[in-house]
Recover the amino acids of this structure.
């Protein structure tokens, strides 16, 4: 056990003298009263795509699940230890959130791995390969159009994958039921890690930059 | 599909005019060159415990996995879609990170559920129950001392669970090997969501507030 | 009979030229008028946990009972020579104190002995073993969780023991009656002998650091 | 449960900014390395006779047992919960202290109660009466000399009682054995709570003011 990374300790000291110091009352109230976030964000682990940064969100605002490539599996009540499904269940059944946002982002390493037919497993356990296999035949269905650039293919799959996760989300009976009742809204978003733009899914399923 | 939540759009506008505007160069370089975070944080989905807030971290610094109660399973290369293991594999094998921090926090809803012998599943799928069953007999081993308060039992299990996740982390062959070679360090941390304090594991496995 | 320890004589000379010299009037008045402390502190014999040091208290302020591990037995008017009960009776019935503080502390040797199932009696008289048996099954009720560190178990039992002493205090009929009448308040405290912090029991029985 | 007494919180704040701040290193070392006091002081609970004040002693110096009237019972390994004997056993067998000081003081309330043949029990439990009965016939043996003032009788019994406690101490087999071997010294002291003087027992058992 090495000593705790100094850059994290320094960062925490900044937090204490900065945000904590300024918002102490609110933070303590949140601890005492319990969290009541209205939104579940399903995002990627990527260090460049933190939801709290992108949405300038403070403590108590966002319930955040982060896995590689922000994937959502289908509803599988088979007794397995499904971490993503547990977070979705907790957010909806335990916290009563009213919005779910599946947020992908550009240059996603997991999507890139899924796109590369020659990619080798990172390790013999091949957890990434198994995890990304949740996309099934979607990468292959992008076809072999040789006038589509690699970047375009990547962005395309990032967005297809968001729609796939949303489709899977709706296999959860309570997601479907609450959405039908107008008590829960499911959204898609895609963040451009280079120019900072947020693209959101419109009623057609297209990604657009929202009007300001 | 409802329209995208306005508070998220407003937050993103703040991001663009604030941090993005100030750090544009760095953010674009990060997009271009790829991420090279040195640290994987395994944290909870709780809206009051965002790693980027706690460590005042900017884009590119932290690769962040968030699931309910920041649990890590044992190494199980069984072909299942293990999201947490995929993130760990990607962080180590794909990004070459040199620090892993398992960070728990106070008043964790998942831990609370694990402690309550009378808790009912939130849903018939019972994903939370199955997920928290990763703790095995640890909650029961806390005993039935009636002079221990509920808050004390909760803090005790939050910390026990961090140690359990660290023990499980070391069942990943590459974690154990890299740690032995001094190329990877595994840390534990516990965040007090009320007073903002960070407690870190020392060489004895105890949680202490680091000297400033 | 050896000569009186020189370090104590030197210390007393310091007292005479220091505090006594400065507070002579008050000290003499206290001798003449009699003591009227408002608080009984029940503390441990440990050399690192003197109540007068911890509370920066001067002559006349604290009526102080110190035994191993600051234990209070239940009310047992059986004719035995109960030293702790005698001090409590004297403080309440003789001096009319209005506050009782049961103060435990970290790294308590008596608690450590109670926690070790393999500890051998220090002596054939085994006074420590008999004395600590006042805790009954509380140490065993902490369970056998192997991911709880020895230091955590110790702190847990130190705090449980304080609550047990408070529960026992309330078996004294006058303690219960005066407390009900609002004429006596019973408090718990735990002193960290390393960092100097004082933790006090809140309304839930939890130990917290009081806000300054 | 009332809120913790403010005067104690204020006193602790003084401790933290005063002594703790000045002696932090030493105090932390003591916590880490364990206490090694060389002296056990058996003193009274009286608020005007704190050993640490009288001997200007800092953390780690004195292992302090305080009961009403600083009494020591005889060695009674009968299975009872003897608090005073437990502290003596711990000090000698557990800590290896080399000096024991039985310290009485002027105007002691316990001694006063023992002297008054008309005194009524403070309470039906009569813990004080039972406790002071440890002196047996000693108060009565002072006789009825009507030219001895009450103050003289009180001082006389205070000093007689110290010698009685020392006699009882020597019924502890290890006290007697270690004293014979020259590894333990037993001392008597009497503190004048009015003028601050310390009187110590000489080789004849007389109380004298030590030469400076």
């Amino acid at each position: 056990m090495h000593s705790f990374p100094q850059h994290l300790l320094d960062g925490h000291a900044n937090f204490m003298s900065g945000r904590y110091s300024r918002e102490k009352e609110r933070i303590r109230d949140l601890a005492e009263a319990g969290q009541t976030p209205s939104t579940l964000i399903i995002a990627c682990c990527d260090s460049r795509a933190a939801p709290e940064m992108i949405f300038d969100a403070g403590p108590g605002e966002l319930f955040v699940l982060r896995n590689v490539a922000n994937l959502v599996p289908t509803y599988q009540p088979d007794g397995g230890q499904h971490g993503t499904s547990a977070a979705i269940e907790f957010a909806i059944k335990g916290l009563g959130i009213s919005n779910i946002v599946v947020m992908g982002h550009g240059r996603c390493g997991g999507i890139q791995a899924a796109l590369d037919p020659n990619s080798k497993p990172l390790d013999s356990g091949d957890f990434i390969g198994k995890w990304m296999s949740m996309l099934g035949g979607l990468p292959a269905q992008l076809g072999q159009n040789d006038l589509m650039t690699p970047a375009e293919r990547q962005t395309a799959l990032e967005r297809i994958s968001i729609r796939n996760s949303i489709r899977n989300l709706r296999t959860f009976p309570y997601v479907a039921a609450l959405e039908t009742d107008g008590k829960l809204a499911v959204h898609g978003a895609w963040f451009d890690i280079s120019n900072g733009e947020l693209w959101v899914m419109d009623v057609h399923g297209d990604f657009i930059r929202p009007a300001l």
About this structure: The beta strands of chain B are 39-44, 62-67, 99-105, 185-191, 198-201, 207-208. The first strand of chain B starts at residue 39 and ends at 44. Chain B has seven helices and six strands. Residues 91 and 97 of chain B are 6 Å apart (CA to CA).
